[in-house]
Amino acid sequence: MTGGGSSLPEMQRLLAVLAAGKRCAETGSAFGEGALAIASTAASLVTVESDPERAAVARERLRQASNVELLVGDWRELLPQRGPFELLFFDAGRLAEFPDAIDLLAPGGLLVKDDLTPVRAVDGDAVRELLFRDPRLLAVEVLTTPTTAAVIAARRTSGPR
Ligand SMILES: C[S@@+](CC[C@H](N)C(=O)[O-])C[C@H]1O[C@@H](n2cnc3c(N)ncnc32)[C@H](O)[C@@H]1O
Fold first, then answer.
1. Which of 48, 49, 107, 124 makes an SS bond possible with 29, Cβ 3.0 to 4.6 Å?
2. Which of 12, 27, 127 for mutating ligand 1's site (highest number of atoms within 8 Å of CB)?
3. Is the pLDDT of residue 145 over 80?
4. d(Cα 17, Cα 19) in Å, to the nearest integer?
């Protein structure tokens, strides 16, 4: 598990665009900044934070967002019973260690992973190997700033064509 901070403003903008009208989830609410961006356009958001003090800050930040459910605990225990989701912002630790996160996606659903170093080779990069090589996913890398990247992966509705 990572301590981590808040997502970048550029990433929050991207999340708001991708979340529009969707049933969304976030692993790792931290202080609620990413969640607030998602909630600004989403149909609904379930966000989970394991640190109670961070969750309290997030709850205050999100108190006027009626489409948000903030849960305190481990996303691995709390999210499976709430899914599937049309957008999952994975922001709690190393995604490559938790490939079950893909099971949370509805067909066509988007998995978003940020905080990546741009233009790394897929081979040898555990998170890119998972997102670009899993046959259930179709992934693309985007620059979020000149020095940071995100990968957006859609869960296929059928096998690769
Ligand atoms: C990078 S921060 C999240 C930033 C936030 N998503 C944002 O955009 O502002 C990562 C957070 O994940 C939380 N975390 C780590 N492992 C977790 C787990 N298994 N379940 C829930 N939260 C977890 C950490 O406590 C930390 O606050």
1. 49
2. 27
3. yes
4. 6
Q: How confident is the model over 90-99, as a mean pLDDT?
A: 91
Please name the helix (run of DSSP H) or strand (run of DSSP E) that holds residue 15, with its range, or none: helix 9-19
Question: From atom 13 of ligand 1, which residue's Cα is the shortest distance away?
Answer: 28
CA–CA dist 77, 84 (Å, integer): 14
Q: What's at 125, amino acid-wise?
A: D
CA of 157 to the centre of ligand 1 (A): 29
Q: Which domains does the chain have, with CATH numbers?
A: 9-155 (3.40.50.150)
Cα 14 to chain centroid, rounded: 11
Q: How many CA atoms lie within 13 A of 68 on its CB side?
A: 26
What is the arithmetic mean of pLDDT over 56-81?
Answer: 97
pLDDT at position 1, please?
39
Distance (angstroms) between ligand 1 centre and the Cα of 26 equals: 9
* pLDDT digit string, tens, across residues 51-67: 999 999 999 999 999 99
- Ligand 1 centroid to Cα of residue 159, in Å, is 32
